[in-house]
Structures are given as C-alpha cells and as structure tokens.
Amino acid sequence: MPDILTANRHRVLETLSDQPKLVAGTDLTAAAWLAKNGYAIRHRLNHFTATDAGIELGKKRSADPASRRSEISDV
Q1: Is residue 30 situated within a structural domain?
Q2: Contact, 36 vs 21, CB < 8 A?
C-alpha cells in the first residue's frame, strides 16, 4: 500500500531543491528530500528501501566495508 502524503508534506516536498538544506529538528525535510531523490521511505526515518536508481548506485560502490569507511573519511 503506497504512503499517502499529507497536504503539508506534499507542499514541503515540492519546495525542496536538488541540494538538501539542514533545517534543525526537521525529520520531515530530510525524509522529503530522500523521497524526491529516489528513496522510498518505510516504517522509520532510518529504514529506507532503495529505488532502481539507488540499487544501481549501490552496485557501483565497493562491497568491502574497509574501503567504504575510507570513502566516508575522504568526504
């Protein structure tokens, strides 16, 4: 069953740019940005189901956890 956005959440989603902006204490903004950029939000904010685009991106990343940590530290 698809999630139904409330009018307020739909408005927030429409106003988001391609780049996320930090809004202190606003989980809705983070969730809406993720939804707009190819993630389906399920159950909790920290539990995501990737779309086809997200799966392709995941395939490009290394499977070795040590190399993923170095990718994160390079940022």
Answers
A1: yes
A2: no
pTM score: 0.23
Is there a contact between 52 and 40 (Cβ–Cβ < 8 Å)?
no
Residue 59, domain extent: 7-74
Phi, psi of 38 (to 5 degrees): 100, 20
pLDDT tens per residue, range 26-37: 566 666 777 777
Closest CA to 48 of 65, 24, 31, 36: 31
Count of domains in the chain?
A: 1
What is the CB neighbour count within 10 angstroms for residue 48? 17
3-state helix/strand/coil string of 2-55: CCCCCHHHHHHHHHCCCCCCCCCCCHHHHHHHHHHCCEEECCCCCCEEECHHHH
